[in-house]
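Protocol step 4 of 5: obtain the predicted structure for the target chain.
Materials: sequence only (see below). No template structures provided, no constraints applied. The aim of this step is simply to have a reference model before the mutagenesis design in step 5. Sequence pasted as it appears in the construct record:
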Amino acid sequence: MNTDQNVKELVKERYSEIAKQSKTENETSCCGAGCGCSIVDQTIMADNYTSLEGYFADADLGLGCGLPTEYAQIKKGDTVIDLGSGAGNDAFIARSIVGDDGRVIGIDMTEIMIELARKNALKLNLQIVEFRLGDIVNIPLSNNRADVVVSNCVLNLVPDKLKVFSEIYRILKPGGHFNISDIVLEGELPETIIKEAEMYAGCVSGAIQKNDYLNMIKQNGFENITINKEKKITIPEAILKNYLNETQLEEFKNSNIGIYSITVFAEKSKDCGCGPTCCN
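Step 4 output (structure tokens):
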């Protein structure tokens, strides 16, 4: 990878292309953006939303790696923030729970995704769902705004994950919590994969070690950190062969390296004082 800015531009370009396609097109185009089989198809990682209340097919691009609303303990009247909200899939699920007395705000850095999400909200005539253009390392919200923060397979795309968790802590109310689905690793990926920009956009090479991920959460002052769900992700050989020769591929297959989707819950203390980031 090059600079953080290059990573950001790569991710924006990739997800802008995905936003132009339906979930069906993403599923049938190997990598999710019609670009052959060179990078990881997010639909390999996605969970099935169709049985959840509030599901809206037009908003489901198959980009997630979990169901963050499943364990999010969202209540009627809550304010929920969805980081990396895409076409609005998780935001609309959250809306079905918070009801008319609640509020849902989606944040995404890709203009075309924001446009798509807003169009979907209009189709559903949802007045309490808002989508804002913004970067989740500098969330465009005031302190202590959210009861719940959710995010689905997004933090792995951000180089400065520690800053994102700091921002989540800042915008949560004392006693608020997050529930995030994301990709993590156990064991070191081959160097050829780590250095490949396209594998970053495919949610793989940007992932960090699971223990490091959990330590970042703890480092930012969160409590009651719990992994509610975990599943192993298998990358097809057809994709791996673009980055690994036969010897490297066999070594990778026989190694203890694991790529996992985890759904993590953590709370901001009700009496948070002025920990890593002030309550006020």
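Step 4 remarks: The chain has one domain: 4-266. The CA atoms of residues 38 and 235 lie 12 Å apart.
Proceed to step 5.
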